[in-house]
Amino acid sequence: MVGIGRCASVGALLVALAVLAPAVTATCDDELPTQLVGNYSGLACTPVWNTFVLRYAQGKDNVLRVVLSTMYSTGWVGMGFSKNGLMVGSSAMVGWMGKTGVAHIKQFQLQGKTPSQVVVDKGSLVSNDHDHTVLVQQAKIYLAFQLRFTQPLKSQSVLLAFGSAIPVNDRLSEHQDKTAIVFDFTTGSSSSASSFPEGLKRTHGALNLFAWGVLLPIGAIVARYCRRWDPLWFYLHTGIQFVGFILGLAGIVAGVSLYNKIQANVPAHRGLGIFVLVLGILQDWEPPAEKPTCLFFSFVSTGNFVGP
After folding, report:
1. pLDDT (tens digit, 9 = 90+) per residue, 193-206?
2. Is the keyword Transmembrane in the record (predicted)?
């Protein structure tokens, strides 16, 4: 029983250490490596996320000096600057140690969410004619770089991410974890960034669900089974279908706006939406009854080959 109790105590201690490890390592107590002291002394410091620590200072010439550090074993670490808190459209500084021990730090432009859309040596960040530096010391990686802006940074959307695979030919693997924060470079405070257009996403889904899943099927059912209520069935069918089509069209417009904001890679979803929209347009266009196309219209509109 004593042995079991000791094992349980040791296990509990190991779990506690594992839980507290990030909080212990994410501090500003560690001194900068001596290789960075010359160009990166006098920086303000604050823990920002997990084991990520941000050291920074802004000069009068709008030059931002940054040293980003975190625990490191392999892979890559990046810090991005975004206009809206989203990955797509942002620019990032990414550093890693190569397999041969050579340090790398490069700018990447995040044009999309696939590895092929993360383009090396492109972006909107302007270097301060100073060599950027990557160091690994005591299981920590340090990304040191200087950027010039047109005006002092105040509240800025910042992206932090890391991947577990070493980049090959400057091609970044998918990140293992990421976050977006709004960091105030004047006060050193930060908050979670939530710029994903949730409202637009809900609007897109609700409009399409109600239009294509409720109103239009009801309109088709009226046309198929309520013809004995002539001419009421026709006015009900036409009115319901027209309102349903307008709401569905509004939902698709919301979807296009959502896609432009987040650049989602959903080709099947987009293709299906366009196909349904085409069917809706055909349904709302009724040719003269004597023409052969009337048979096709009747099938699209009511689901059978019975003319109106």
Report:
1. 555 666 778 888 89
2. yes
